Amino acid sequence: MPPFTTLLQDAAQMFLLLFAELSLLFLLISAAINRLRQTIPDHRIQALLGARQGRGYLTAALLGAITPFCSCSTIPMLRGLLDAKAGFGPTLTFLFVSPLLNPIIVGLLWVTFGSQLTLLYVLVAAGTALIASLLLSQWGFERYVITTRSEPSSCCSPRPAMAAASPSATIRGLRPASGPILRPAKTACCTAPSPAPVSTANCCDTPAPVSASNCCGAATSSAEPPSPWRAALVEAWMQYRDLLPYLLLGVVVGAFIYGFIPADWIARHAGQDNPFAILVSAVIGIPLYIRAEAVIPLASVLLGKGMGSGAVMALIIGSAGASLTELILLKSMFRAPMMLAFLSVILGMAILMGYLCQYLL
Fold first, then answer.
1. Which residue ranges run through the membrane (predicted)?
2. 168 lies in a domain?
3. Judging by beta carbons within 10 Å of its beta carbon (0-12, 13-18, 19+), is residue 161 exposed, middle or buried?
4. Could you give the number of structural domains in the chain?
5. Which helix (H) or strand (E) holds 212?
6. Is residue 22 one of the residues assigned to a domain?
7. Is residue 322 scored above 60 in pLDDT?
8. How many CB atoms lie within 10 A of CB 331?
């Protein structure tokens, strides 16, 4: 075993690399998702990824398969889907599929292990993700989602609330035949006018920005709205700042495990002589954070060290599908029952793939 100082240095280098990589990915992907949501109204996302239609699940699986995201860089897209109130089941399908069936992992599996194992891997990952998402949605696990922000108030409601005025009041000199005179109730838009322009792309489907004042019939503010990309970047920075404590904790733990758990230790405890090798590999894979471009070469090395193919596949799914860093980030969005369900699905998928690979191939 290498000296402690060497292991500590490796862990520190991995921390810096992971923190820089994940921070950059999170900011870029979050900005891209925010910009996309400016152009695509939420109701269209809800129609495309609706939970009541089977095609919503298939669309989410396809979306996850074509996005080259690792387990951690999936988080910004997941947060965007939750904020847009896409179907809960399809959103979970994307969460399960995205890190496991991204083009990098599938391509490397094909080159390293051949078409037969790759096809089995794709069928197990996609099938388990679809079934688990459908069941969790039907069982009402949506109630365990943590609301990240309140619904934006709209000053463009087509039916403004009406408040009763005194009998002596008039609206433009008109009085109804009987009953109290009604006038539009003051909203936050009217009681707290702001000179800053507010985009109404989401509340009115109107691309033109309007000021808070002209919702109340006053003069339109002449201040120029910020550029769409600037607004998207500002929102991405705010999201990154909210998740920074979780990101730091996840990267610290992941880098420590990466630096102090060598491949020889994994191969020794999950070798072919261990009857519980597949289960051990699936559990070991969860704390590890292994990037997509590194997980398949590592698997090839472990095979050369005597690790069984089933245990290797369980390790791949465990590490790629639910790294500890991802779990810590998900803790800011899901409550404990949903976290446990997510972890159980990934572990179940890893164990299933391991035994199918061991006995069928």
1. 12-36, 57-78, 90-111, 118-141, 243-261, 273-290, 310-330, 337-356
2. no
3. exposed
4. 1
5. none
6. yes
7. yes
8. 15
For 247, the domain range is 4-145+230-360
Q: Which pair of structure tokens corresponds to residue 241? A: 């700042």
Residue 331: φ, ψ to 5°: -60, -25
In Å, what is the CA distance from 287 to each residue of 232, 255, 281, 325?
Answer: 32, 10, 11, 8
Q: Is 76 exposed, middle or buried (0-12, 13-18, 19+ CB in 10 A)?
A: buried
* Tens-place pLDDT, residues 271-313: 677 778 899 888 888 877 666 666 777 777 778 777 888 888 9
Q: DSSP letters along 191-209, please? A: HS--SSEE--TTTT---S-
Give dist(CA 98, CA 76) in Å, integer: 12
* Distance of alpha carbon 90 from alpha carbon 15, whole angstroms: 33
Cα four-point dihedral sign 19, 23, 26, 29: negative
126 pLDDT band (50/70/90 cuts)?
very high
Q: What letter would DSSP give residue 307? A: B
Mean pLDDT of 334-345: 95
- Cα–Cα distance, 170 to 148 (Å, whole number): 43
Does residue 197 belong to any structural domain of this protein?
no
Neighbours of 156 (CB within 10 A): 14
Question: Is residue 188 situated within a structural domain?
Answer: no
Checking if the pLDDT of 339 tops 70, the result is: yes
Specify burial of residue 195 (Cβ count, 10 A radius: 0-12, 13-18, 19+): exposed
Say if CB 219 and CB 213 are below 8 A apart.
Answer: yes
